[in-house]
Amino acid sequence: MSARTHRTRMLGAAAITVATLTLAACNNGEGVRDEGASAGSTSTSSPTADGGTSTGAGQARPADSASKGSASKGRTGGAAGSSGTTGSSGSSGTTGSSGSNDSASVHTACSSTSTRMTATVVSRPLNHLLLTVTNTGSKNCDLTDYPAVQFDEAQSVPPAFEDSKPQAVVTLAPGESGYASVRLAAADGSGSNGFTAKSLTVYVGKGASAAHPSLPAKGVYVDDSIGVSYWQSTMADALTW
């Protein structure tokens, strides 16, 4: 055996002896001890997203079924409560909005108590009187049909020109005016039973109270060709008849 081979064996034996002594020193309680596979299989539990706990190597342990059911009900109730379906409907204020617009949405028949009326003699058409009704109330009112006019102590009211009937009822918002014309006498003088009237009574709508607009001091001449237009929304439409 050569000297080189002998030295190699001696160095290997020395290394094994040193490793053995080092391991023995660790096992005396001063070093780290290998607990084996059982140490890895035991760990502290931690909560998981689904309400269970994590044990061992990542396996989830379901939470108590009763607790889980209660939590589920709680979450469901909370979602329903937060949706606020009833509250949202109430907050929309549909009924409140309708109520706040009563003055604009509620219609009543115009009457002498909620309107102001004037009677004006116009130059064109000839022998015509223009009736103007202004809504002085706080709500919309409707001018229905045509005015029933009575000069002095006449026992009957003049007929309406049926062709003047509008397609829709004339509605007056507060402050707005409606119009009707009265043909007092025939322009060509063909009328009969004429007289000069000094007073005028006008009934606005069916069953309404009477208005008494003033006439010129000298009065107006009226004959049996008298007629009235239906209520119109514009002065021009009223004076067409």
Tell me briefly what this model is.
The protein is of the alpha+beta class and 241 residues long.
What is the approximate shape? elongated
Give me the secondary-structure category: alpha+beta
- Rg over C-alpha atoms, rounded to the nearest angstrom: 53 Å
Task: Give the mean pLDDT.
Answer: 72
Read across the widest sheet, the strand sequence of neighbours is 5-6-10-15
Largest sheet: number of strands, sense, barrel closure = 4 strands, antiparallel
**Beta-strand residue fraction:** 15-25%
Give the total of beta strands.
15
End-to-end distance: 150 Å
| Helix segment tally | 7
Helix content: 25-40%
List unreliable stretches of 5+ residues.
Answer: 20-27, 29-101
> SSE order, as H and E?
HHEEEHHHHEEEEEEEEEEEEH
Pfam family, one: DUF4232
Protein name: DUF4232 domain-containing protein
Domain DUF4232: 110-232
Keywords: Signal
Notable features of this structure?
241 residues, alpha+beta, four-stranded antiparallel β-sheet, three-stranded antiparallel β-sheet, 7 helices, 24% strand
